[in-house]
Design goal:
single chain, about 625 residues, alpha+beta, 5-stranded antiparallel β-sheet, disordered N terminus
């Protein structure tokens, strides 16, 4: 920093991004550094600090210092077809820097993880079938009668029998290496591998909209992230053109990374594992992201902290994020949600298994009443129904495993529109299904025998007999804005992210804000929004003034009446990327909400959900106003 006067620099301004070109005395190559106008104004020496960081990184990794470091553009990034980075090659090199030996200390809700080539740690890309992590492919775990039904089943079942989808855990790295080496291209891949089986590795080929590019869906149990995760996401998609390299928050508290090329997958997957995240079993016939309370552990009205429960269930399903072939060949996709309060922020009623907190009437121990069978599809929408079982919180993962294995072996392998859990329940009757699950649980966990046979417990706040009035009335809370935590002197701050779309620069800004105010922790909601927990009350006013939240895009509601339509907006991906969607949804949804707020006076939040096809990824059925695209048939 003190040597700044020995360097010559040029400052240019373009859309509030400052580009500084520094000619370093010892180098014949200029180095360009980008930072925000606000950052430069508040800290004039910031560019030189960044240059020093770049030089140190280059020295450590022998990478030439002839590229750009891009800092946060608080005015946002245009969606034109220009790369986010100065060059694609630099983006790859920069990510390689982040794949060196890595250690992160624990933050709230996270366990300590480490990455070191010298301590025997195995990268995700180094695992092979036949090893202890993957003894055999998923199909090998199916009973004989299940395989016989699959042989007579739908085309996806036959595709899985030909080669199990779990093979993608390993093959994704083989494909990536072959493309990097120039021995194949994505066009040469078997279409079933590229468009179907890679979904077991979380990769969705967008053949119709962006051929050769993939969306990666992650596993983020309970929606818990860190600032390092958010920066890694930004680095990952930021090397691609701006109209495809984006980050989406989903309606399952999850992250989808868009625009990715297959040759980059090994670095990405290894980087995710280093950071305690996973990509395995997030698509096709697998259990999707575990949903929990976004304010778990900080909620003054909390009944159960869902964080560890969601992580335990996810660890059981995914073999601690490494991939679990045993549960990788279900008849159909499967959703699980764990609620932590009466507000049910996890939306248990639209999941195959919903765990709703309720105390045991005898012991007072807090556990869960189980509801089952909820789902959306083209042909049917089903709200979950009571299973009349209560389980202890400590047994949640065991119970879910028993249900999943029974569903795996006995669910329909025929019509995929009738292969979800509710169809099996209806075929057996609830009493028969309940008994079958209790028997399966006792068989798997004999020391816990009877743990899945305790009848559902009465909810203390339930509707009084003969009336429609709850004995303890409750109104679901809105968690956007500033709210006091149960920890004295701390608040959480809920941020609206319009339609859940995050650009790389915005992800960097969110990470910086998390480091500054919430100890690096970021949480996601099923409404596609973000929460910063554990903000010191003395810092709340400062957070509210952050430029990201005052430029007309992201916002923090100050009252219940602020942004009444935008705050509850949810949208599916739409035809910009999804080949099934019939219309573009996200940009339309954002624009319409803003126009309506300008023209109408609405004195309460109204939740508007958009979905671009009847699959209802936008969950139109649970909105105040649900908009689902459909064809107009004309004579």
């Amino acid at each position: 920093d003190d040597a700044a006067s020995d360097n010559h620099f040029i400052v240019e301004s373009q859309e509030k991004i400052i580009y500084l070109t520094l000619q370093v005395r010892s180098s014949s190559l200029p180095t360009t550094i980008c930072c925000t106008e606000a950052l430069l104004r508040n800290n004039p020496k910031a560019p030189f600090s960044m240059l020093r960081l770049l030089l140190l990184s280059a020295i450590c990794t022998a990478i030439p210092v002839n590229a750009a470091i891009r800092r946060t553009s608080l005015s946002g990034v245009s969606r034109s077809t220009t790369p986010h980075r100065s060059t694609k090659e630099f983006g790859r090199k920069k990510r390689m820097l982040r794949l060196s030996k890595f250690t992160t200390t624990a933050t709230a809700g996270f366990t300590e993880s480490s990455y070191d080539d010298d301590n025997g740690y195995k990268k995700a890309s180094e695992r092979r079938f036949g090893d202890s992590d993957w003894p055999q492919y998923g199909t090998k775990y199916l009973p004989k009668q299940t395989i016989e039904r699959a042989e007579r089943g739908n085309k996806i079942e036959k595709l899985k029998l030909e080669k199990c989808g779990s093979a993608a855990f390993e093959e994704v790295h083989e494909f990536a290496a072959a493309i990097r080496e120039g021995t194949t291209t994505w066009e040469d891949l078997d279409i079933d591998d590229a468009d179907v089986r890679l979904k077991w590795a979380g990769l969705f080929h967008r053949r119709k909209r962006t051929p050769g590019r993939f969306m990666m869906r992650l596993k983020v149990p309970n929606g818990l992230l860190t600032s390092d995760h958010m920066r890694f996401f930004a680095d990952t998609v930021g090397i691609y053109p701006a109209d495809v390299g984006v980050i989406d928050i989903t309606t399952r508290q999850n992250i989808q990374l868009r625009g990715i090329e297959l040759q980059d997958m090994t670095e990405l997957i290894d980087g995710l594992q280093m950071r305690g995240l996973s990509n395995v079993q997030s698509g096709m016939d697998n259990v999707r992201n575990l949903v929990g309370s976004p304010i778990a552990g900080i909620d003054p009205e909390e009944l159960v902290d869902t964080r560890d429960i969601a992580k335990d269930i996810d660890a059981m399903i995914t073999n601690d994020g490494k991939g679990n072939p045993k549960l990788a060949n279900l008849p159909r996709k499967f959703n699980i949600a764990v609620s932590g309060s009466r507000d049910d922020f996890a939306h248990t009623s639209i999941n195959d298994i919903g765990l709703r907190p309720c105390p045991n009437k005898e012991s007072g121990e807090m556990g869960f009443n189980v509801i089952v069978g909820g789902y959306f599809s083209i042909k049917r929408v089903m709200e979950s129904i009571p299973m009349d079982i209560w389980i202890k919180a400590e047994d949640a993962a065991r119970f879910c495993e028993a249900v999943l294995l029974y569903f795996r072996d006995n669910g329909s392998r025929g019509d995929r529109q009738k292969a979800r859990l509710i169809w099996l329940i209806e075929d057996m009757g609830m009493e028969g299904f309940r008994q079958a699950i209790s028997d399966k649980y006792d068989e798997m966990f004999p020391k816990k025998k009877g743990g899945a046979a305790i009848p559902a417990q009465p909810e203390p706040w339930a509707v009084a007999a003969g009336t429609n009035t709850p004995t303890q009335p409750h109104k679901k809370r809105d968690i956007l804005g500033v709210h006091s935590q149960k920890q004295e002197g701390l608040s959480w701050v809920g941020i609206n992210v319009p339609a859940g779309r995050i650009l790389p620069d915005e992800a960097m800004a969110l990470a910086d804000i998390a480091d500054k105010y919430s100890q690096g922790e970021i949480r996601l909601t099923v409404e596609q929004n973000v929460i910063f927990p554990n903000v010191n009350n003395t810092k709340v006013s400062e957070l509210l003034q952050e430029p990201l939240f005052n430029i007309g895009h992201y916002f923090i509601p100050k009252t219940d009446k602020d942004f009444p339509l935008s705050r509850g907006l949810v949208s599916c991906t739409g035809s910009q990327f999804c080949g099934v969607a019939l219309i573009e949804t996200k940009n339309r949804a954002i624009e319409l909400s803003k126009r309506l707020e300008e023209e109408l006076k609405v004195d309460m939040p109204v939740r508007i959900h958009w979905t671009g096809c009847p699959n209802s990824c936008g969950q139109a059925q649970v909105a105040d106003i649900g908009l689902m695209v459909g064809w107009l048939l004309l004579d």
